[in-house]
């Protein structure tokens, strides 16, 4: 918004000219989201506590300490994240950029699904919210629409193709299968982050790390000089996604202030589904869907652990892990919550660096 109002006032050598630069506006988006979270975080948490009274319902199949230590903590903290993210993005991003709107619509579409799920849970004080099939169905519809939308904004030569990391100019023409593939990337990312959100601070930091990494990738593939040097596919317009990523990191840091152990608030499905969907939409827009699986490898691990557990139990009646997702497995082994969280953060940083390295390794 500021770009459209202030850049016409610039003569090329004044402060208004700064608003032409993605880097400057990304810094502004980061600070706006962070300050919003600090200023309005506590009032939002107090409002959630008054509205929910008993806080988030705790599943009785979780480790016993969750029932004792986390009872009464309000959920739906994703409202704080999404509010800061939306205000910052609308304020600092170019609103004539289609990729920005793809990511925003996906984020808030999945956020709405999560909000409905959280609302039903706290209203009934039950772990059962929106039926799983309905959640998945709505998520797939949003993701499918977004995949077509993002594809329409990309150069014709790149439409319906999947880029292979490491290999030079290696593209797979998926044809009609690309839309379902992109749909699975977005919806799968949303649900994988949702499964990861089980300990204080566990999901939000890896989300910020992944968002920062994908922001770098989006900026690089949106510039011809970088894509020529690194031999990447050029996708004009994706650089503006960096503003969204910066706002997400600012909002995430502000939320972590309140979500650090012991958490004052949980992000709930409102936040986890929305943020996961955002990561998937960014990867699809920037044509780095496979790299997302590397950068977000922690989320993949969490989701795969659940799949393995379910399949193993149905086929053999035995469990591979003491509890799934895998962070609960380590809890059952006696690891302290802070130990699990920090070690998973370290893994996220390592995977992000590996993912970014694929830009150069060709």
Structure commentary:
The chain has 15 helices and 2 strands. With 362 residues, it is mostly helical. It has one domain (2-357). The protein has a two-stranded antiparallel sheet with strand order 1-2. Helix 2 (22-52) runs antiparallel to helix 4 (78-92) and helix 8 packs antiparallel against helix 10. The relative contact order is 0.15.
Strand content: under 5%
Number of helices: 15
This entry's quaternary arrangement is single chain
- What integer is the average pLDDT? 93
Can you give keywords for this protein?
two-stranded antiparallel sheet; 2 strands; single chain; 15 helices; 362 residues; mainly alpha
Itemize the secondary structure elements and their pairings.
Elements: H1 2-6, H2 22-52, H3 64-69, H4 78-92, H5 98-124, H6 132-153, E1 161-163, E2 171-173, H7 178-196, H8 204-221, H9 224-230, H10 241-259, H11 268-285, H12 289-295, H13 297-316, H14 326-332, H15 337-357
Antiparallel strand pairs: 1-2
Question: Quick gist of this model?
Answer:
The chain is mainly α. It has 15 helices and 2 strands. The protein has helices spanning 2-6, 22-52, 64-69, 78-92, 98-124, 132-153, 178-196, 204-221, 224-230, 241-259, 268-285, 289-295, 297-316, 326-332, 337-357; strands at residues 161-163, 171-173.
């Amino acid at each position: 918004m500021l770009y459209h109002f202030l850049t016409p006032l610039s003569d090329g050598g004044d402060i208004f000219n700064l608003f032409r630069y993605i880097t400057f506006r990304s810094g502004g988006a980061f600070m706006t989201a962070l300050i919003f979270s600090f200023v309005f975080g506590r009032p939002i948490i107090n409002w959630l506590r008054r509205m929910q009274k008993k806080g988030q319902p705790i599943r009785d199949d979780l480790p016993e300490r969750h029932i004792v230590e986390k009872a009464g903590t309000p959920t739906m903290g994703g409202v704080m994240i999404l509010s800061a993210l939306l205000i910052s993005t609308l304020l600092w991003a170019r609103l004539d950029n289609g990729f920005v709107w793809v990511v925003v619509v996906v984020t808030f579409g999945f956020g709405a699904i999560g909000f409905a799920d959280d609302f039903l849970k706290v209203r009934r004080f039950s772990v059962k919210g929106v039926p799983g099939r309905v959640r998945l169905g709505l998520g797939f519809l949003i993701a499918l629409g977004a995949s077509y939308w993002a594809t329409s904004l990309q150069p014709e030569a790149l439409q319906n193709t999947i880029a292979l990391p490491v290999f030079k100019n290696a593209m797979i023409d998926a044809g009609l299968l690309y839309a379902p593939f992109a749909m699975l990337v977005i919806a799968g990312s949303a649900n994988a982050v949702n499964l990861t959100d089980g300990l204080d601070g566990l999901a939000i930091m890896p989300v910020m790390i992944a968002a920062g990494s994908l922001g770098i990738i989006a900026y690089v593939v949106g510039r011809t000089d970088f894509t020529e040097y690194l031999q990447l596919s050029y996708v004009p317009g994706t650089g503006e996604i960096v503003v969204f990523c910066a706002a997400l990191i600012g909002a995430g840091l502000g939320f972590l202030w309140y979500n650090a152990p012991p958490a004052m608030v949980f992000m709930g499905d409102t936040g986890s589904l929305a943020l996961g969907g955002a990561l998937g939409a960014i990867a699809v827009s920037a044509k780095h869907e496979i790299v997302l699986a590397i950068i977000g490898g922690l989320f993949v691990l969490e989701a795969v652990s659940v799949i393995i557990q379910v399949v193993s139990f149905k086929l053999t009646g035995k469990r591979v892990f003491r509890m799934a997702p895998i962070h609960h497995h380590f809890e059952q082994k006696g690891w302290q919550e802070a130990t699990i969280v920090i070690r998973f953060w370290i893994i996220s940083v390592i995977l992000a660096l590996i993912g970014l390295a694929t830009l150069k390794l060709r």
